Structure formats: C-alpha cells, structure tokens
Fold this sequence. Notes:
Layout: E1 6-11, H1 15-23, E2 28-36, H2 45-49, E3 56-63, H3 70-80, E4 88-89, E5 92-93, E6 100-103, H4 106-122, E7 133-136, E8 140-142, H5 150-153, H6 155-173
Parallel strand pairs: 6-7
Antiparallel strand pairs: 1-3, 1-6, 2-3, 2-8, 4-5
Amino acid sequence: MAEKTQTAIFAGGCFWCMVEPFDSLPGIVKVRSGYTGGHVDHPTYEQVSAHSTGHTEAVKIWFDPEKITYSDLVELYWQVTDPTDAGGQFQDRGDNYRPVIFVNSAKQRQIAEASKQKLIESKVFANDPIVTKIEDAVVFWDAEAYHQDFYKYNQARMKLQDAQREAFTEKHWNKN
C-alpha cells in the first residue's frame, strides 16, 4: 500500500455490519474484519464469541487521507453505531461487541475526543450518555477468511443483521 495510507480501527458490534459502510467510500483502500483489545495471540472467532479472550470484533480500515480524512471516518462511525450502548450493539450482545474507537496516534485521539464531545453537545442522544470508549490501538488480528467481505457474499443474512442498525440510524440521524 502507498506510503501515505493511514489506518483506523473501529469496533461497533458485529464486524460484518461495520465493513460495508466504510468499504465503498472514495479513498478507502481496504477494510478487514478482525479482533483487537484482548490478551490472546491469534484468537479465533469461537474464542472471541465465548468471551474468553477480552477481544472485541472490529474493522481495520486503510485509507488515503488525501481523499478521505480520519475525521470523516469518525463521523460515519457515530452514524453506524449506538454510542449509548456499552453492552453490545443492536442484536449483538456482549463485551466482544462493545463500541470502541481504537486510536493509533495523538492526532487520532484528539480528533476522536473532539468528535465525541461534539456529539455529546449536539444532544442527538440527550436522554442517554455517550459510552463509546476511545482506547489506544493494540494488535489487530485478522478474522478468519470466511468473515472477510461477508456482506458481499451473504446479502440475505446481512439484510437481517442490518435491520436494527438501519432503524436506529433512521431514528437518530435522518430526522427532518
């Protein structure tokens, strides 16, 4: 990948659902599903799903900052997650589905923190506190091959998986 490419790591429920919103944006080089934030090397889906590794499902995004900014990615992140639910996301429950922005630099932390504060001040979620964590990025382990690009090959399953997320987005972000 080009030297100018940067990375972002976001956790917000099932990684299957987190790939598609970012994958088709101009400036995105690639998006991978994986696991991060845990204490086991090379975790498997079964281990992470059993809550025995401390990992969360996440996506790692390689992007060209000349075409799309990290700030743009963070803004989209807020719109495809429920930042008020620390116990998982939509139908996906458990600590492996917790919402986290994993930052890999002081600049990313500043952008993510400022964006979170802006979201709090916007009162979009006036009745619920924003609980999304902002943590330092640690080792990101690619998920198994069958998890990569899942949305492209399993559209019927994705339609079911995305229903709650889409209803939430419509309720909070598409108000007129």
